[in-house]
Amino acid sequence: MRQPEPARPRRFAAAAPLLALGAALALLSGLAGGLVRLGWPLLPDRALAPVALHGALMVCGFFGFVIALERAAALHQRWVWAAPLLAAAGTLAALALQPGAAAIAWLAAGAVLTLAYAGVLRRTPVLHVAVEGAGALCWAGGTLLWMLDRPFSVVVAWWGSFLVLTIAGERRELARFVPLSAFARRSYLAVLALQAAALGVLAVPWHDHPFAASAWWASMALLALWLLRFDLACRPGLERSGWALHTARCLRLGYAWLALAGVWGVAHALRGMPLDAPGPLHMLLLGFVFAMVFGHAPIVLPALLRRAISAPSRWSFAPVLAMSAGVALRGLGDALASTPLRAGAGLLQALAVLAFAAVMLTRLRRPVPPLSAR
Asked: At 309, is the secondary structure helix, strand, or coil?
């Protein structure tokens, strides 16, 4: 009987390092566009795409690509690799100032990722897969709303839920063998239901959604408190060292920023300010999401690049602290409407991202050649 051949999916997996260049391109373009928006003259006037599509490049081009790439590498199914390939194609279209084509590619990438999670959920009906699948659906839904020219604050909410739900689901996936109490499970579902209800109301083409925006931000704060209480990495009494300690510190910092962003966002919404007000939004995306990236990179990168990672140095956590300092400075600048503070914070945050990338590259070891090649 003919055995199934795993070589083809492995060929895609072997191309993961090359595909990761697409994520680097989206990240650098998004960072450059953000700095230009803050007043740093880094790009010529004709290079408009990173400025005009800064948010889309970061969420869909970088985060969407990385999440899709990680899932495709983990699932070992050839068709799932369409998700990161489409995400990369969307980035190229965006940089070519073709937002319509970029949106179509990113919508298709989100749809493929959603179908991938649906397939896993059909085989293994567990909560964390459903939450991650809901996150992928939010990516596709937010991109569709963007194509329909809905207010960008609504698009931002759906895209923000894509990132937050993916992270919340992955945290449960990593601790899936640690059972939750009945209260923990019910409260987790209640917070997710609140967020889903808020997204549903925001998607309706009305003119004002002050209560929905408040509920969306409140769900973020409540989810942060839940994660601080029930995430295994935040539990006291566990001995940690090396990268495990690094990850635990990043998670605690990120959850704290998510809680602060949620409280600030609720206060803004109750005062009639838009959901995508820069203060709480950047606290969520740069404080929370990047803390999760910094925390999970030592786990994800070795698996994607097929290379071991050395123990962290004494400076490995410095970029994380620099990013948090930048988030605090950016929050102060937004609260005081200070352009110099915002510009300085943006530069510090961009340097923190680049410094962390350098740390990871220096800690990755060279792949060990097979015995036949020695």
From this structure: strand
Paired residues of 309 in beta bridges: 364
Tokens of 53: 């599509």
91-128 pLDDT, tens per residue?
999 988 899 999 999 999 999 999 999 999 999 999 99
CA 172 to chain centre: 16
Could you count the other beta carbons within 10 Å of the beta carbon of residue 306?
A: 13
Give me 168's structure tokens.
């919340």
Long-range contacts of 211-217 (CB under 8 A, 24+ apart): 213/153, 213/157, 213/265, 213/269, 213/274, 213/275, 214/266, 214/269, 214/270, 216/157, 216/161, 216/265, 216/275, 217/261, 217/262, 217/263, 217/264, 217/265, 217/266, 217/268, 217/269, 217/275, 217/280
Separation of alpha carbons 61 and 89, rounded Å: 9
Q: pTM, whole model, 2 decimals?
A: 0.90
Give the C-alpha separation, 171 to 217, whole Å: 20
